[in-house]
Structures are given as structure tokens and as C-alpha cells.
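Protocol step 4 of 6: structure prediction from sequence.
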Amino acid sequence: MDELLRELITDISGANEVIWILLQGQSSEWLSETCKSILHERDPYCRRWPESHHANVLELLNKLSRHRVIRNAVIHGVWYPYDPFTEDDLLPRPWGARDDGSPVYYCTRSRYRKIDEARELSVGDVAVLADEIADVQSRLIFEFKAMKKHSNPNAGEAFKRWSS
């Protein structure tokens, strides 16, 4: 996710490849918000790219941000095979309580100056999350390729390494 966002920022900013120095190590949230800001700053009146591309990219980045919160819980959280919280504020499974046949775990994640989040997740939920992130990335690549083609019809194929 982060690598793609870094490449998209580099492309839409019009900056040369040295910009990677500023982008390496930045959080997914920072990269996503920067991508939105640069899109707006480079084309505030939708003259370079059609408004539909702007809207689609913003929608996809917002969706990616919602998935990022769950991804970060998966990666950075503490996992339990039982519910140690017994609290009413347990966040439900992200795609509902469907029975996917996989075990359900309880995950907590602390955040700076925020109350800990506790949520239920199954192994199947993590697989769905990976598929959802891959889908959003694929759709972002499609949008950016279309934007690149719109602004420069004679340009070579963009984002070659992300082709599926």
C-alpha cells in the first residue's frame, strides 16, 4: 500500500525521482493525505484531469484509509484467543459476524493519547482485508493510468510494475 502511494505522489506531483527521500518512512495516513493534497493543488479546477477522476481517486483513498485502520490493528495489535476485555465497546468484526469457519480472535491496539481499541477479528477477516486492499490498489492504479493517458496521450504505459 505505502509503496504504491509513494509512486502515485511522485507521479502526480510532477517532481523528479529524488522526492522518494521525503516519502520513505512516512506513515500510510500521511501518504494518503499528501496524495489528496497534491491532487487538489496540482489541479484545483479539474482542468488537467476530469472531475470524475478526482472523485474516484478521493473515494478510493478514503476507502484505503478505512482499511488502513483495520490493517494497523492486525499488524500492530496484541492478539488474544479469548475476550479479555468483556466490555461493551468491543468493535465488531469488519465484515459482519459471518461464519467463515476460521477462529475468532480479540485484538487490542493502543494509540498515542487515545483509548485503546479492542476488536474481534477472524483469520478469514484478515484474508478479506488483504483482498479488499488489493482491489482498492488495483482500482487506484486504473484511475491513475487513465489520468496519465488523459493529460499526456503520447506517454508510455504508466505504473508498469503494478500491472496485473
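Step 5 (inspection) to follow. The first helix runs from residue 2 to 13.
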